């Protein structure tokens, strides 16, 4: 399984004339898995800077609508401490606990949002400050065994771009790390495989789309089946994609 990077979102919070600066925080582990047997987890936040960093920790319910992530307030998880200061070159241990029972048959999905606040030593002369926002996935396994189940499809757009779509019909998430697409007929005119990179999560019941732009050579034909080979956090996969909408 390949390493999965935590999501980092940079946001400007203080306006000034000097160049932007950002704190450097690291978090381990970068994702949390809970269940009826494992209802708590420990997360360590490390500060690699020479100045103290204030961090707010907030749990959020995670869903996906129209291929966009949505985070909502939740009381299903408890995070302590919710607000803390990481000393220079120091660390802070967080504890996250599940307050509800797992779902009988479907994975529950959350994110832990770590937002950097203004430094306790910040002054007006420190320049433009860029705060980090780190979100870590938190998965709660159901009572029954759960697994993702993807249905793949594709279509050819008017400009020649190949659009590949996947719908997760299963009861657990999957993270697609990368994949390549090749004409299933493997003819001499099929051209080189089209490749994509960039990890994306598909939660149960959600869909995702990728647009692959052909380079030199003939792109795979959207009129017939395609072979998709890739990597995910559940392992390597090889599937056949049919033209049209997912079945």
Concise overview:
Helix content is 0%, strand content 55%. Residues 1-22 have low confidence and may be disordered.
Secondary structure layout:
Elements: E1 7-14, E2 21-22, E3 25-28, E4 32-34, E5 40-47, E6 53-65, E7 68-73, E8 77-80, E9 83-86, E10 91-98, E11 108-116, E12 129-140, E13 150-156, E14 162-168, E15 174-183, E16 194-202, E17 207-212, E18 226-232, E19 235-243
Parallel strand pairs: 2-12, 4-12, 13-19
Antiparallel strand pairs: 1-12, 3-5, 5-10, 6-7, 6-9, 6-11, 8-10, 11-12, 13-14, 14-17, 15-16, 15-18, 18-19
Description:
The protein folds into two domains: 134 residues, Immunoglobulin-like, CATH 2.60.40; 94 residues, Immunoglobulin-like (Sandwich). It has no helices and 19 strands. The two termini are 28 Å apart. The strands form three sheets. Strands 1, 2, 4, 6, 7, 9, 11 and 12 form an eight-stranded mixed beta sheet that branches. A seven-stranded mixed beta sheet has the order 16-15-18-19-13-14-17, with no helix packed on it. Strands 3-5-10-8 form a four-stranded antiparallel beta sheet, with no helix packed on it. By secondary structure, it is mainly β.
Q: Return the domain count.
A: 2
Mean pLDDT: 83
Gyration radius (Cα, Å) is 22 Å
- CATH architecture classification name of the largest domain: Sandwich
User: Helix amount, in percent?
Assistant: under 10%
Index terms:
247 residues; mainly beta; Immunoglobulin-like; 8-stranded mixed β-sheet; 7-stranded mixed β-sheet; 19 strands; 0% helix; globular; disordered N terminus
